[in-house]
Amino acid sequence: MSELHFVIDAYDVKETQGDSLMLINELLVRLSAKFNLKPVMPPYLLPYYSSKDYEDSGISAFCILANGHITIHTFPRRSCYFADVLTDIFIEEDELRDTFKEYLYADRMSVDVIDRRFPGMVEGKKINENADFGPHYLIETQGFEMTMDSIYRWLDDAPANINMLPITRPYVIYDSRENPSQITGVVMVAQSHIAVHYDIKTMRCRIDIFSCSFLRDEQIASFLKKSFGDKFTCQLFARGSKYISKKMSKESRLTMYSAWRNFSK
Prior knowledge:
Strand content: 35-45%
Mean pLDDT: 89
Strand order of the largest sheet: 2-3-4-5-1-6
Structural class: alpha+beta
Order of helices and strands: EHHEEEEHEEHEEEEHEH
Radius of gyration: 19 Å
Distance between the termini: 68 Å
Helix content: 10-25%
């Protein structure tokens, strides 16, 4: 069974679309229905407007699937969004791209496809802080017995240990009420996420740590070693490599919204 991970970076997005809870909810529902992705929970959407930098505000959303997840993080003030679709269902790349554009249109969109069965095939690279938006760590470990409680605790501890800001408590769920085969957990951090997928039978665990700010590799490596010893692989995938900032300056935004005042002059 293939395990396809579609990594979608979209640019030149309309601010009103990136700020629309309705559109993002409809997109998550449509993706699940169109590609038979087997959601095990309804979409969860969280508007995030508490960032120190207003330009980093937006919407974070996810939907947990029977064997994967969909996540979307929008940055309306920066005219971009970042999405992930991890699934064991085969999807045509062009169909997926068109479905995203139907709800969240982007003038420019890059789609990378990673087969998570072969983590060694992902070409790791150092992050270029002058050219990239942020890092995405693809982690795998096997042989550790995990439970819903231990996954919850790991997700609850992870953000503080790797210098990320949690904006939810962890969500942990079985893929089925009867005879579950997988446990999935997600915690949303400031405009990004950490996700865990654990196969109960094989004791294989896939972890994603996606950050829209730059992290210290040695800090993540230290936390993973503390958690799993030497029994893990970790590869780095750059996000937003083609990102060109389109954000409007604070001064320009204030001028635009107060233009009506010139009428009385």
